[in-house]
Amino acid sequence: MRRGWKMALSGGMRCCRRVLSWVPVLVIVLVVLWSYYAYVFELCLVTVLSPAEKVIYLILYHAIFVFFAWTYWKSIFTLPQQPNQKFHLSYTDKERYENEERPEVQKQMLVDMAKKLPVYTRTGSGAVRFCDRCHLIKPDRCHHCSVCAMCVLKMDHHCPWVNNCIGFSNYKFFLQFLAYSVLYCLYIATTVFSYFIKYWRGELPNVRSKFHVLFLLFVACMFFVSLVILFGYHCWLVGRNKTTLEAFCTPVFTSGPEKNGFNLGFIKNIQQVFGDNKKLWLIPIGSSPGDGHSFPMRSMNESQNPLLANEEPWEDNEDDNRGYPEGSSSLAVETET
């Protein structure tokens, strides 16, 4: 009886966590819906008097709004991609591994299994990266998300504002969402500003629209500042072909730690996220190359092209081996084990 109560309580807690995890998304959706009403109705249809100005404002606004909403939708509902079956331990291997009590033998078993897989990264101690929750050998750049309770390919971070884990399958959409969010806030702020000044000077009547216009400018500027910082940080990561996790914890390869291990050069780094077809870079359609299980590495490129060996890598000013500082991102949290 007591065990049944514990299971019911645990199930209820999980259900509550799932419901509460959608609260940040609901907040964003409500703010966006209000901004749509305030801009389209209170500003364009009520406050703006020139018909030509109304049409231009509305056309440009809806063009930006469509891409903003589209990329947000893709960031939320594109499921994180998990490692395929060949990285999971077979039933026999799992039984052998769990029944073995000697850690050194377990370690050697994983080494033997990893020889059959394209894995080149290791733990800080040099061991094969193994997830004891999912019972699989982690592919390069794969990490276990404690919120999603799964291993995610090329995991970047878990973002509460989209209630999703950002990784190989949706990192492009997340970057586009940040870019269109910045553009959305900037467009609203620049077009609203002149009417803000008119209300401030008393050149327009003190009606209900005044509150919406003034508050719209304040909200747009507030979100613009925070989003520009986050978007700039992720642009920095893309330029160096790093994930958020790799920026805080240097990846370890079979040859040792290498903070520029996946840095292929600026253009190729961008192509690793957006693909080779530049026509798709601004459209939220999947175009990232590969399957997320293996990635080209700098050391391999250098062996194929000796000229790259003499190229100066981009250096970071901070030590990449430092731990996660509290509040490192106001809009994202890292939950990896």
Automatic annotation (TrEMBL):
The chain crosses the membrane at residues 20-39, 55-73, 177-199, 211-233. Its EC number is 2.3.1.225. It is an enzyme of class 2 (transferase). It comes from the Eukaryota. InterPro entries: Palmitoyltrfase_DHHC, PFA4/ZDH16/20/ERF2-like. Its main location: membrane. PROSITE patterns: DHHC (PS50216). Keywords: Acyltransferase, Membrane, Transferase, Transmembrane, Transmembrane helix. The DHHC domain is required for palmitoyltransferase activity. This is Palmitoyltransferase. It comes from Carlito syrichta (Philippine tarsier).
